[in-house]
Design goal:
Helix 1 runs antiparallel to helix 2 and helix 3 packs across helix 4. This protein has 2 domains: 99 residues, no CATH class; 176 residues, Vaccinia Virus protein VP39 (Rossmann fold), CATH 3.40.50.150. It is globular. It starts with 17 loop residues before the first helix and ends with a helix. It is 39% helix and 20% strand. The structure holds zinc ion. Zinc ion binds next to loops.
């Protein structure tokens, strides 16, 4: 474990609203009553079962085991809920815990548009957007597709949440469908397939990558945006524990994402630690997997030591101020 802070003491790191607290208790009850079923698959990249546990709880104080693969360095949630338990979790529990509401309001929609504009700027820097056919997997209300459509792209989105899709259809008048990637029967291929804050939720990312290859046009591009393990400074106040949530299956760095994508015959056009990344499929043999275990553990332990030191200094500073008064 990274430090004692990561023990399963049920204490949340975040300050929860009343609704989030109630939702957390409901999820805990589902876990205690074995309503949710858990599974422990081998590593999603290298298939090795050997892991080192980093954390026993998530940022909400829910029991959630986060581990790092000793053979490749991928950080993943294990044990994790199986697909049918996650389906239930996303339908009933997730939004109330994560967003604090079950349906999107105008504040939420506006915040999504603001985030989408940043992503669209990144995409426009690397690709010509005008006239290209785009599919977004897990598009939610479709804010990103809306901003891409304004740049001249032909957009389409799929999601399993009808509430969010309906809000998107009503608000943006977009071409959105309630389905998953494997049920989709498109009449065309796509120049760009997008996973924006979705890929880290997938139980079988390799299956998604293989399906994307079938749906991408010749010279098509795959875009993946996930929270980056090495980019915790701003979004998570330099605290890895603040990043952890039971809805996330994987936590990537640019290196471990490259490991996964290259095993599935995708090569990088661009990938940063934020992580915003663009990939091209190819048909050459997959390279050997590189092991980033030692490097990743060293990075996380350094960050944790810095966090603990900041806490000590902050306590000392407060004590000194009290004494002076
Ligand atoms: Zn592995």
């Amino acid at each position: 474990m990274l430090s004692d802070r990561y023990k399963n003491d049920q204490k949340p790191l975040l300050t929860l609203t009343k609704q989030q607290q109630l939702q957390k208790e409901r999820i805990q009850q589902h876990i205690d009553e074995k309503f949710y079923t858990f599974e422990e698959p081998p590593c999603l990249i290298c298939n090795n079962p050997s892991v080192e546990i980093l954390a026993e709880k998530d940022r909400y104080g829910l029991p959630c085991s986060t581990a790092i693969c000793q053979s490749c360095g991928l950080i993943q949630t294990t044990p994790r809920m199986n697909q049918s338990s996650y389906n239930h979790f996303y339908n009933d529990d997730h939004r109330n815990l994560y967003v604090g509401a079950q349906s999107p309001d105008l504040t939420y929609i506006n915040s999504r548009i603001k985030a989408a504009e940043k992503t669209t700027t990144y995409l426009a820097e690397h690709l010509s957007l005008s006239g290209i056919r785009i599919l977004e997997i897990g598009c939610g209300i479709g804010a990103l597709l809306y901003t891409l459509q304004k740049r001249g792209a032909l957009v389409e989105g799929i999601d399993l949440s009808e509430t969010y899709l309906e809000a998107g259809k009503n608000h943006f008048n977009l071409n959105l469908h309630t389905t998953d990637l494997f049920q989709l029967t498109p009449s065309t291929t796509y120049d760009l397939i997008i996973y924006s804050d979705v890929f880290e939720h997938l139980l079988d990312p390799a299956a998604h990558l293989q399906q994307c290859k079938k749906l991408l046009a010749e010279n098509g591009t795959l875009f993946i945006k996930v929270p980056g393990v090495k980019n915790i400074m701003r979004p998570y106040l330099n605290d890895f524990l603040r990043m952890l949530q039971n809805a996330h299956i994987t936590y990537f760095s640019a290196d471990t994402l490259t490991n996964l994508l290259s095993q599935n015959q995708f090569s990088p056009l661009h990938c940063n630690e934020q992580i915003m990344s663009l990939w091209k499929p190819h048909s050459q043999a997959a390279p050997a997997i590189t092991n980033y275990f030692t490097q990743t553990i060293r990075f996380l332990k350094k960050k944790e030591n810095q966090h603990l030191l900041r806490n000590v200094l902050s306590i000392a500073y407060n004590v000194k101020n009290k004494l002076i008064r």
